[in-house]
């Protein structure tokens, strides 16, 4: 008795999603490595004694600088590449994935930006918590922010690993699919 043909689905395998994340994390690591090198080279130029515990204003300035140096460039990278003709970051291209709207059509630029801002929120919130933990100030806020970042990260990542859409995709009306998938079951152009 012949077996039934496999069901074609847009949902990428968990291995493809992890490969995509690893590729994009490599991009982040390269950027952070460059920032660390610049920091090491410019540190001798900075003068003055920093207080043991920063003031509220100094903490906010640190939060802003960290966001502008790390999170904002990553959101721009994600959004520009996912809005491009290829509809994919370097990690997604490596894994054979693309970002589309919820029905499988081309995602709009606004959808892609919203998707990536929501996806970056756990990272940003973690920065806020870790900064406070490092300086040993606002300890309750540090713990709350760190836990919140982990919950949001799980809400974005866990559904993707089981073939669903994470919080960021649901809010933006997008999804990630295999680049070769088409509704007719054949290869996409």
TrEMBL record:
Subcellular location: Membrane
Transmembrane found in the keyword field: yes
Pfam families, alphabetized: RDD (PF06271)
Principal subcellular localization: membrane
Lineage: Bacteria, Bacillati, Actinomycetota, Actinomycetes, Micrococcales
Full protein name: RDD domain-containing protein
Domain RDD: 13-173
Keywords carried by this UniProt record: Membrane, Transmembrane, Transmembrane helix
Residue stretches spanning the membrane: 25-46, 58-80, 140-162
One CC-aspect GO term: membrane
Record bears the keyword Repeat: no
Topology versus the membrane: Multi-pass membrane protein
């Amino acid at each position: 008795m012949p077996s039934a043909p496999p069901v074609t689905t847009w949902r990428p395998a968990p291995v493809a999603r992890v490969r995509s994340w690893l590729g994009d994390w490599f991009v982040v690591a390269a950027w952070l490595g460059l920032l660390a090198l610049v920091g090491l080279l410019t540190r001798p130029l900075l003068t003055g004694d920093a207080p043991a515990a920063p003031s509220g204003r100094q903490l906010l300035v640190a939060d802003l600088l960290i966001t502008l140096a790390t999170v904002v460039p990553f959101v721009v990278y994600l959004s520009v590449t996912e809005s491009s003709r290829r509809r994919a970051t370097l990690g997604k291209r490596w894994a054979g994935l693309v970002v589309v709207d919820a029905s499988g059509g081309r995602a709009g630029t606004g959808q892609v930006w919203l998707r990536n801002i929501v996806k970056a929120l756990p990272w940003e919130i973690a920065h806020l918590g870790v900064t406070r933990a490092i300086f040993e100030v606002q300890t309750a806020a540090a713990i709350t922010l760190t836990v919140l970042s982990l919950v949001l990260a799980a809400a974005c990542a866990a559904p993707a690993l089981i073939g669903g859409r994470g919080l960021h995709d649901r809010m933006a009306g997008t999804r990630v699919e295999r680049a070769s998938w088409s509704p007719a079951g054949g290869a996409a152009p």
